[in-house]
Specification:
The chain has 367 residues and is an all-alpha fold. The protein has helices at residues 3-9, 15-44, 55-62, 64-99, 105-120, 123-137, 142-168, 172-180, 185-215, 227-238, 241-274, 293-304, 329-336, 345-366.
Length: 367
């Protein structure tokens, strides 16, 4: 960002302000470093317990067997629930987001109640009630389906609001133009407004994926064997719960960082893929196969390029192109109205007659 762009947000700091900012940064860095040192010292010498920085406690948390038997299976269960919840949330959000925009007041009212209810109830409560309901019903893997369905209901309602907000932020001319073309409200929503809203909400929707991934950790409360649950199991075996949870937090951080980077990269990629190139020259408001197309465009450019105070040319130069008539351009100019007196039209016809007579004379002479 240039200095000119920075000045639009705040005044550019002077030498004294820069000196104060530098001093404040140094002081804050020192305080943060002291805070980290104090935490490490506390972990190394806790009041009641053994040294948490000991290698004997860290080794079982990072060795090969821990990853194969605990971390990777737990990570697979986390991703398994997250992927299904993401797909379901997108379907749920698009459907109810569209229903909330329909002109039918009954459908819009029912959709609003469902979306607002799913947004208002905490996702953990949804998991608990669904888990108990599935368990009483005898459904296998009750904890897994409770986690997935709770995440779909909560995050799908958020996606529905993103869809509604994306359509609401579109210019009013989009809907007015579609209605003027004869489309219905439903066709305008599905064919004109919704595609634009989906592209506009895509960064926020990808960011919501991070929320889905992190909320799967709540499933450990209802005995779902995700990454957090497996880390706790490993820590309870070796009495190093702090170390195993630290490793799990690193895994969570890495995955969420990749998704956050994807959320930043996706809008620019979509923008580059959907942006259409500019036409090299304007298309005249006449039939595309009209042979005078290029002539009319060129004449319009001549009029635009006239100096200030100049008068339009009475006779325009000969413009050629793929759609222009090269041999009868004077006649084309006359038919378009640029040559009121059609001077030279008769001369052009006489010239063509003379060329025909010369051709006939040469043919007879050769015979």
């Amino acid at each position: 960002m240039s200095n000119k762009e920075q000045s639009l947000l705040f005044d550019t700091p002077g030498p004294k302000a820069l000196k104060k900012i530098r001093i404040a940064n140094i002081v804050a860095g020192i305080i943060f470093a002291l805070f980290i040192v104090a935490i490490l010292m506390r972990l190394a010498n806790p009041p009641q317990g053994e040294n948490q920085l000991s290698w004997e406690l860290w080794k079982p948390a990072i060795e090969y067997e821990a990853w194969v038997d605990f971390y990777l299976p737990g990570l697979w269960m986390t991703l398994k629930a997250s992927l299904l919840a993401i797909v379901g949330s997108i379907i749920f959000g698009l459907f109810f987001g569209l229903c909330r925009l329909l002109p039918n007041i009954v459908i819009r009212g029912i959709s609003s109640i469902i979306v607002e209810f799913c947004r208002a109830v905490p996702v953990l409560l949804l998991m608990i009630f669904l888990w108990r309901g599935f368990a009483f019903s005898g459904i296998k893997n009750a904890s897994y389906w409770a986690v997935v369905l709770a995440l779909i209901l909560y995050n799908g309602s958020v996606v529905a609001e993103l869809v509604r907000a994306g359509v609401g932020n579109l210019p009013n001319g989009q809907r007015e133009a579609s209605l003027a073309l004869g489309l219905s409200h439903y066709q305008s929503l599905t064919q004109i407004e919704m595609p634009q809203a989906v592209i506009a909400m895509m960064p926020a929707a990808v960011t919501q994926i991070v929320v889905v991934l992190k909320d799967t950790a709540l499933g450990s409360i209802i005995m779902y064997t995700d990454l957090l649950q497996e880390s706790r199991r490993l820590g309870s075996m070796y009495f190093n719960i702090l170390q195993t949870l630290f490793v799990a937090s690193i895994v969570y951080f890495f995955i969420c960082w990749v998704l956050s980077w994807f959320a930043q990269w996706l809008p620019e990629h979509v923008k580059n893929r959907t942006a259409a190139p500019t036409e090299p020259e304007p298309v005249a408001p006449i039939a595309i196969m009209d042979p005078s197309n290029v002539n009319q465009i060129a004449v319009a450019k001549e009029v635009e390029e006239l100096p200030h105070g100049g008068t339009p040319r009475r006779y325009h130069v000969h413009h050629r192109g793929t759609n222009a008539s090269i041999h009868h351009w004077r006649q084309t100019r006359y038919l378009q109205g640029y040559d009121e007196h059609h001077n030279g039209l008769q001369n052009e016809e006489n010239k063509e007659n003379e060329e025909g007579e010369e051709t006939n004379y040469s043919t007879h002479s050769s015979e």
